[in-house]
Write a structure and sequence with these properties.
- The chain contains 6 helices and 7 strands; from the N terminus they run αααββαββαβββα.
- By secondary structure, it is α+β, with helices and mostly antiparallel strands.
- Strand 3 and strand 4 form a beta hairpin.
- Helix 2 packs across helix 3, helix 4 packs across helix 6 and helix 5 packs across helix 6.
């Protein structure tokens, strides 16, 4: 099992989002935007009113596309977007995967752009969901993420389904293919770059 496919807790992604003060609560404006992805937004909103704690299946390609990443690589991409880039749009974790909600059309363009890049082959396999696809998104209201078990060991977040960066606007900013390409390549290069050598002073040296 290589570095990219190794398991990592999605709880760490949630904790990092909290540290950076990203919202984990879907606002009414954000819920309206999510519902707009459906051809029947009122039906979606009625379902949420009846079952606010249930995940939902929404179509891609209209309001947003989704880039579906492994936990470790997803966290590294988010670190690049948050630390050195323009930030991210809404982000969720579901069944151990990181779901980035991105601009419509990204699902089609991003794989093609990666194919042209020298480092593109080093990017772990990703799933890009666009027009004609549908994805499961977390419930509008979710319980707090587990942190540690009674023995003090971090819990496995594979079953966690929650918003890391929740929709909070009717018109959220969404990264496009160019921004995701930059973040993916930067994450790869950072991970594969050798660590700087540690210089040890010799006795008597200045």
């Amino acid at each position: 099992m290589n570095e990219w496919q190794g398991s990592t807790s999605v709880v760490g992604i949630v904790s990092e989002a909290r540290r950076r003060q990203h919202s984990a609560c879907v606002t009414p404006e954000g819920a309206a935007w999510l519902a707009s992805a459906s051809a029947f937004p009122r039906s979606v909103e009625a379902l949420w009113s009846a079952r606010p704690a249930a995940p939902s299946v929404l179509p891609c390609g209209t309001a947003f596309d989704v880039v579906n990443l492994t936990p470790l690589f997803g966290r590294r991409v988010l670190e690049q977007l948050w630390a050195a880039g323009p930030g991210s749009g809404p982000v969720a974790v579901h069944r151990g995967r990181v779901l980035l909600l991105v601009a419509p059309g990204t699902a089609q363009r991003l794989p093609a752009l990666l194919d042209w890049e020298e480092w593109g082959s080093a990017v772990p396999p990703m799933l890009c969901h666009g027009s004609g696809d549908a994805v499961t998104v977390p419930a509008l209201h979710t319980a707090p993420a587990p942190r540690e078990d009674p023995a003090g060991t971090p819990r496995d977040g594979a079953g966690v389904s929650r918003w890391v960066v929740a929709p909070d606007s009717r018109h959220p900013w969404l990264p496009g293919a160019d921004v995701l390409l930059w973040a993916c390549l930067r994450a790869v290069r950072t991970a594969l770059s050798p660590a700087p050598p540690v210089l040890i002073g010799l006795p008597g040296s200045a």
